[in-house]
């Protein structure tokens, strides 16, 4: 059992599992709680990752403000959010730095990194370097959306990552083999959240929101 406040992959998995409904709708609330779990984990890795967790916190908070706001009913699902924000006109949407769509898009891109990273951890060997797994995953996903200084800072921070075994241990699900099994269970849920968001945003030409 995970200590109170500690990271537990199980909780994150449960949250992401609850994000996609049978009708393939993406629910925001469980997604945000999954993100909080990941952020808590990132924060436990130390100050080197502070600039990353700060940005993730800011983005999750933007989404929570939308959900609590006057138009909160439109922020139940990804689909209702897209419909609502597009109804105010694409120009208006493109001009808003705190729109739900552009904020979700940033988190969505980060989810691809997460998917690749977890897959790398799962299939890695005992002595695989997590910094290499992380850098490869980053270069294949988020890096192309980041300017040079962010790429540089991120790649430097990755060097401070703990070993693969230490990672599997902090997942708080038992011995490494069990942690690997749970990663195998978690990844398809994350893929499914990624997949429905990608489809929805592509359909409405929202994948390049500035
Ligand atoms: C474990 C190591 C974590 C590595 C995280 C990789 C992501 C690197 C991202 C670097 C972001 C730098 C900060 C600023 C970025 C923004 O410019 C950018 C664009 O936003 P905007 O408003 O300027 O257009 N923001 C983003 O791209 C969003 C980045 C969000 C990153 C969220 C990462 C959350 C990670 C959680 C750690 C999960 C590890 C799970 C392992 C579980 C297994 C034990």
Keywords, separated by commas or semicolons:
single chain, 210 residues, mainly alpha, Glycolipid transfer protein, GLTP, 10 helices, 67% helix, globular, binds ligand 1Q0, lipid-binding, cell membrane, golgi apparatus, nucleus, transport
- The CATH topology is what? Glycolipid transfer protein, GLTP
Inertia-based shape: globular
Total beta strand runs: 0
Strand content: under 5%
**Total domain count:** 1
- Just name the CATH architecture: Orthogonal Bundle
CATH homologous superfamily heading: Glycolipid transfer protein
Structural class given helices, strands, pairing?
A: mainly alpha
How many strands, which pairing sense, and closed or not: the largest β-sheet? Answer: none
Ligands, ions, cofactors: ligand 1Q0
Keywords: Cell membrane, Cytoplasm, Endosome, Golgi apparatus, Lipid transport, Lipid-binding, Membrane, Nucleus, Transport
Family: Belongs to the GLTP family.
Pfam families: GLTP
Main location: membrane
Explained architecture:
- The protein has one domain: Glycolipid transfer protein (Glycolipid transfer protein, GLTP, Orthogonal Bundle), CATH 1.10.3520.
- It is built from 10 helices and no strands.
- The chain is mainly α.
- Helix content is 67%, strand content 0%.
Q: What does this entry show, briefly?
A:
The chain is mostly helical and 210 residues long.
């Amino acid at each position: 059992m995970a200590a109170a406040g500690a990271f537990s992959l199980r909780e994150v998995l449960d949250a992401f599992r609850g994000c996609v409904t049978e009708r393939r709708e993406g629910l925001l609330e469980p997604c945000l709680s999954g993100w909080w779990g990941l952020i808590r984990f990132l924060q436990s890795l130390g100050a080197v990752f502070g600039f990353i967790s700060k940005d993730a916190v800011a983005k999750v908070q933007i989404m929570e403000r939308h959900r609590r706001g006057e138009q909160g009913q439109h922020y139940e699902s990804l689909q209702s959010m897209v419909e609502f924000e597009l109804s105010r006109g694409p120009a208006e949407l493109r001009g808003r730095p705190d729109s739900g769509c552009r904020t979700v898009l940033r988190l969505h891109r980060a989810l691809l990194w997460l998917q690749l990273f977890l897959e790398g951890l799962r299939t890695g060997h005992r002595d695989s370097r997590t910094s290499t797994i992380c850098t490869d995953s980053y270069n294949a996903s988020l890096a192309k959306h980041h300017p040079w200084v962010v790429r540089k800072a991120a790649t430097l921070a990755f060097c401070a990552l703990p070993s693969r075994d230490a990672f599997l241990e902090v997942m708080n699900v038992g011995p490494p083999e069990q942690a690997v099994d749970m990663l195998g269970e978690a990844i398809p849920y994350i893929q499914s959240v990624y997949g429905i968001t990608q489809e929805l945003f592509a359909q409405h030409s929202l994948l390049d929101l500035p």
